[in-house]
Structures are given as C-alpha cells and as structure tokens.
Design the sequence.
C-alpha cells in the first residue's frame, strides 16, 4: 500500500555534503514515523534518523548526531536526509522506511515499509 523511492546517493569526498530524498506514495495514515537506516558491506543495518509526523519530533543515531538532519516537505510525502561533514565510515546503502508505531523506533522491526536503497560512497 506504500511505495518508497530513495534518490540522491553518489560518490563524494570526505568533508562534503549530500542530501538524500525519499518520496512516498500510496496509502499513508496520519500518524506515522519516517526513518533512515543504512547498511555497509559486512555490517548490520544501522539506525540513522527518524521523524514523527504528529509533532515533528526527531531522533538520531550516535554516529551521525550533529552532522545529519532529517526533514520533510510541506506535503509531508517526501523526507530528506541532509548529510554534512561526511566521513568514509558513512559509506553504505541508505534505506528509507515508514512505521506506524508511536515511538521513534531505532529497530528495523518498528517499520512496515522500506525503499530499495541508494548508495552513498565517501572517498578518503
């Protein structure tokens, strides 16, 4: 019922900035959470950021706090991830997700729909 499409991933240099987009379509209920996760080769999927639609509350993973910012557009159907001061360890496939739980879950089990991912590569 919900389709998510990420875009914006590409090769950048350490210290650069990049903005990812996640467009959502289909049936999205009023109360939900939008989130970003990432997964590097050989590693588990890691929580990056989440945004709660009802009040705009946000949460961030410790490794990106202070560098990344999650936001949404006026129609609340597109979510962005602004990434600044990128590091080689940020290299991963970034996934957009939607959940209908009330909390800003840091677990992938808290989300119902996922995009296909977009590759971000940061050279050193």
Sequence:
């Amino acid at each position: 019922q919900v389709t998510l499409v990420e875009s914006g991933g590409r090769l950048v240099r350490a210290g650069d900035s990049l903005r990812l987009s996640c467009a959502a379509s289909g049936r999205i209920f009023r109360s939900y959470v939008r989130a970003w996760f990432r997964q590097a080769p050989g590693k588990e999927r890691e929580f990056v950021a989440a945004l709660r639609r009802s009040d705009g509350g946000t949460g961030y993973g410790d490794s990106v706090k202070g560098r990344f910012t999650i936001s949404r557009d006026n129609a609340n159907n597109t979510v962005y991830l602004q990434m600044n001061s990128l590091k080689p360890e940020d290299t991963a496939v970034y996934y957009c997700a939607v959940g209908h739980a009330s909390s800003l879950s840091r677990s992938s089990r808290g989300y119902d729909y996922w995009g296909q991912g977009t590759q971000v590569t940061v050279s050193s």
Summary: The longest strand covers residues 18-26. Residues 56 and 82 are 16 Å apart (CA to CA). DSSP finds no helices and eleven strands in the chain.
